[in-house]
Write a structure and sequence with these properties.
This protein is α+β, with helices and mostly antiparallel strands. It is 48% helix and 10% strand. The chain is built from 23 helices and 9 strands. The model has no long low-confidence stretch (mean pLDDT 95).
Length: 467
Amino acid sequence: MYSRLLAGDASWNGRFFTGVLTTGIYCLPSCKARKPKSENVRFFPTCEAARESGLRACKKCHPDDYARGADPVLETIEQVVAEIRQRPEGFPDGRAVVERSGFGNTRAFELFRQHYHRTPADLLLRARLQVAKEKLLTSKAKVATIAFAVGFESLSGFHDNFHRITGLTPTAFRKLSSSQSFTITLPDEFELAYLRRALSRDTYSLTERLTGNTYETAVRIEGKAEMISLQLASDKIKASTTSSDSIAAHQVVAGLLGLDQDCPAFCRLVTKLGLKRLIADRPGLRVSQTHSIYEGLLWSIIGQQINFAFACSLKRRLVELASESMGNGLYAPPLPEQVAALKPADLIALQFSRQKAAYVIDTSRLIASGDLNLESLFTASATRAERTLMAVRGLGPWSVNYLMMRSLGFADCVPYGDTGVTSGLQSLLSLETRPDVDATRRLMATFAPYRSLATSHLWQLNQPQPS
């Protein structure tokens, strides 16, 4: 228990409570307060037991609230974010967001980064851009009118940020509602070779293929099987889709490209740490997002504790069994309802382990029945998303962090226990042995709040450069 306390391991919250005799306070194992000496610590099974020993609850981690299922600090931050998203024009800057939270500046930044993986100003910027996108599609107002209405002080600032996050100008984004094609301009530092590697990880994939500079993938848009085709170039991506919903298609493509990631800020952090070797020759590397949360969830279960090639084989067998052909050599990604209709024996016959088959089918049934709403996780806090996913049988810390990073786009995740991460850390830091989970947690804390990008770079560190 003391080792879990030192590690700040949130997975042990509620399993025991830590009492510190010198301060008279009891806490959760994950409390961010300074770690006490072992001789001053006592452990308790419940908050009541700690109080009976004369201790009082910590005001930083609120163990009593956690024990009864409440989290007023998280709820306060979520309420502030909901207000920002509803009326971003009501907050002139990040300072106003901090003031509305009711916390001091340092504590507020810590909480927003912990629960949303973003600073207050960054959350406000994205809220403004989201409302602007909605207004561009639903009104005929001028671009300048919309920019100022959502809180931007200059038209150039609006254009620059809109283009950086979407790859489109506001005018081009508005045209998505009447076109089935669009062209995304890539950032100057974009790593096209690494994108090509990410898009062709499974050479024999049944749902996507890369041929020369043409990438084709089958996706689900509003449950319907559609095709998206990309023409890859060093400065731009030309996209076309069979779907009439080009807005959803653009969202898929922007995710594949990882446009909504602050690579320059991460590179500045790594340089400051003296670890430039981590980003050498690939400063613009991004985390390519999966086409859907469900696709990421399937992969996070299938890929557990087996090698990559075998995981790809299992995924292909599941797709071929559960989904339908698109008629062009590719298959549509399976729907939760299609997988939910299978029996464990169907997957065991395909070499799924009994446990893996049960996890895939049971989780799909949760989604199909509506008991697990994956789409709601897009707007949820990272903390809420993590707790929701951790409650699903078959999903552990590796699976949940992988899913949050690759499918939900959270910026500060680490799939703990991942061999690519630990091997990368060993090489980067010249360690004698690969770090265990606790050591990984400590070492990766250095890269906060960009641990997702750090993970992506560690995965590539010992790989040959793509041609």
